[in-house]
Write a structure and sequence with these properties.
By secondary structure, the chain is an alpha+beta fold. The protein has one domain (2-153): 2-Layer Sandwich (HIT family, subunit A). It is built from six helices and five strands. A hairpin with a 3-residue loop joins strand 1 (28-31) and strand 2. The protein is globular.
């Protein structure tokens, strides 16, 4: 109901949120040089992340080679963070391009959704309710610390800038 009732912001949230410098409030977990990772405020499942190019771009083929490579390197990092922090049994990883494909935002982004055996239940079908086993802010804090730990260990990713 929060999603349905929430006032829709004008403009692109993927362009606005990173410049606000309120990472915890905006659920931004990681900032690379060309991409960032943000939690879905209205997740399909606990730990639902989105990897987003910083530059507003509407199609994959419009990304530069460096943006494209970092986008998918960070998708790998996001999956590793989720595997380490939440221990899912699998993932749904996908991109919706265009309204016909279900894209709610006209800015390329990759969904990384952790899945567990038995994570679907009767609640969405019967009560139009999604059960989330952990509060969004609690998940944010846990995953942020795992991002920081894994990025610190890796020379491939730059360290997250404090904002």
């Amino acid at each position: 109901m929060n999603y349905i009732r929430e006032r829709r912001e004008e403009g692109c949230i993927f362009c606005k949120k990173p410049v606000e410098k309120k990472d915890e409030q905006n659920l931004i977990l990681y900032r690379g040089s060309k991409t960032f990772v943000i939690m879905n405020k209205f997740p399909y499942n606990n730990g639902h992340l989105m990897v987003v190019p910083k530059r507003h771009c509407t199609d994959l083929e419009k990304l530069t080679i460096k943006e494209f490579h970092e986008l998918f390197d960070v998708v790998k990092l996001a999956a590793q963070v989720l595997r380490t922090g939440l221990h899912p049994h699998g993932f749904n990883i996908g991109i919706n391009l265009g309204k016909a494909a279900g894209a709610g935002k006209d800015h390329v982004h990759v969904h990384v959704v952790p899945r567990w055996l038995g994570d679907s239940n009767f609640m969405p079908a019967l009560a139009e309710t999604k059960i989330m086993p952990q509060h969004l802010e609690e998940t944010y804090l846990k995953l942020r610390s795992v991002f920081e730990e894994l990025v610190k260990k890796s020379h491939r990713f730059e360290r997250r800038r404090k904002t």
